[in-house]
Amino acid sequence: MIKVPVTFETITPLFTGDENQKMKEIKPASIMGSLRFWFEVICDFSEMFEGDRFKNNEFDYDKYQSYIKNHPYATDEEICDCLKLSPGARYFGCTGWKSKIGIESVMKVDESKISTFETKDFKNYLGLGKITIDTGRVNQYGPPKTSNWYPPPKYYFGGFQVAFSVSNIHIRDKILYPLLIFIQQHAFIGGKNNLGFGRIKIVDYLKTEFRLPSSLLLDLKYNDLVDDKTLPIDHINVFQDLLAADKPDNTKGMPAEALYGIIDKIPKKIRTTSNVNIDTTYLEVLKSLLRIRLTYREQIRFDNSLILRYNSLKNKGDMRSNNEKKEYQELSNWHRLRHCVFGSTQEKETEAAKILPLINQDQDGRYSGYLISYAGILIMGEAKRGGQND
User: Fold this and answer.
1) Listed residue (265, 204, 216) closest to 42, CA to CA
2) pTM > 0.85: yes or no
3) Could you give the CA distance from residue 178 to residue 45 in angstroms, rounded to a whole number?
4) pLDDT band at residue 74 under the 50/70/90 scheme
5) At residue 147, what are phi and psi to the nearest 5 degrees?
6) Residue 249, Cβ density class (10 Å: 0-12 exposed, 13-18 middle, ≥19 buried)
7) Phi, psi dihedral angles at 300 (to 5 degrees)
8) Do 269 and 227 form a contact (C-beta atoms < 8 A)?
9) How many CB atoms are located within 10 Å of the residue 97 CB?
10) What is the DSSP string of 39-65?
């Protein structure tokens, strides 16, 4: 393996929490998970890996043993083709097949500007705390409804160096470097991306451009993934502009075929909005983006006249009749779509948001940002799972 040190600076806080949502270190596994996730998004959006050659995510040991017995000098690519492994499994591994990219260590740098999880007197460098924004919806039983966000109590903000390891120079130049450049431009590492966490910039100069390797029979550039049309941030029609769908009649429920009819047709393109105003603080830019995103979320909501009916059916639980079960499920599908697109932290239906605040910083330290949509990943894997919203 070849060691590849890459130095990063955080634009927004970095969070790599444990199972209890507490940050005790910059976790290599979290960084690797982010790299693999965005690599798989890129491959999925390309729509070049849907054939039989790339259909498997699991390693077939018996088939592998049989193949290498008859082909003792087979290359890794030939073995992967025989096993029909997906791009993610080929390069980031699976049980029985080692990843071509790894991390040996993560080291903090720039100690003067760090908000770190290690010190007892944690310095909240960005002044983060509970964020409350008025939703604009009236609560008939009390004050106007608000949405609240709770940044983690500890995060990392500063420089850090990751010592990557790669199996060969080809993997470094054709997989790792282009992937890091893509993340710097359009994505995140770590968690809490719903709060804009995880934006990084590469300090080192990477002499490369964004392309996937020719060995994958693909010559993919930025404009193959990112729509070149910037959407005006204050005039977004979520259904038409981001989901490429007609809005269902929100005065009644949404049948399952209508829900999945929308999901199945979402374009596999990254869409971006125009910037919000530049500000000197990350927090103010974040609040502006969250406030605007709330207006988008309100577009995927059934009519207020159905709220009492929905709550009544929800409270009935197992006492619903067959017709009521169908009605409740069709009302629940509005929630399902909204949660798929904008995320949910409900205990039985945790879902990551697909429209996120992406924040950048200029050379003068001023922040700006826009909303970025990855709604096309809804048709990847688990996003289609059904279920009630009880």
Assistant:
1) 216
2) yes
3) 16
4) very high
5) -110, 140
6) exposed
7) -105, 70
8) yes
9) 21
10) HHHHHHHHT---SGGG-B-S--HHHHH
